[in-house]
Design goal:
By secondary structure, the protein is mainly alpha-helical. It has one domain: Orthogonal Bundle (Multidrug-efflux Transporter Regulator, Chain: A, Domain 2), CATH 1.10.1660.10. Helix content is 59%, strand content 5%. Strands 1-3-2 form a three-stranded antiparallel β-sheet. Strand 2 and strand 3 form a beta hairpin. Helix 4 packs across helix 5.
Length: 128
């Protein structure tokens, strides 16, 4: 994780500032929260605090609803599917890295079997 990634998840914007940054009204952010589209962290005084990641999600919601005409329920479906795709891509990357590491160590130890240069399709004799 890079320092920028760490800051992206840090909740630091109160609702009025977050709303101004994304170009929405504070009540709209509260509506998105009630609809389950966004979950800002709360301070000890129960004040909503939004991170840069939250602001990016709010921008996606705004694009889906304003520019694409999708209702909040549809936006929720799109966001959940997008989240799931990112999770699966991360799993694939992790599996690929693990497989690549095993593959490199397997060949480094010389424990692989020799495959003929023609892919194992050697013909015996003078068959046509």
């Amino acid at each position: 994780m890079t320092p920028n990634d760490e800051w992206a998840a840090e909740p630091c914007f109160v609702i009025s500032v977050a709303a101004r940054i994304v170009g929405l009204h504070a009540q709209t952010l509260r509506q998105y929260e009630r609809a389950g589209l966004i979950e800002p962290l709360r301070s000890q005084g129960r004040q909503r605090l939004y991170s840069m990641e939250d602001l990016a999600r709010l921008r996606r919601i705004k694009t889906l609803t304003d520019d694409m005409g999708i209702n909040l329920a549809g936006a929720g479906v799109v966001l959940r599917l997008s989240d799931r795709i990112r999770e699966l891509e991360a799993e694939i990357d992790a599996l690929t890295q693990g497989t690549a590491g095993r593959h490199r160590s397997h060949y480094a130890t010389g424990s692989h079997s020799q495959i003929p240069s023609n892919g194992g399709n050697e013909r015996h004799g003078n068959e046509c």
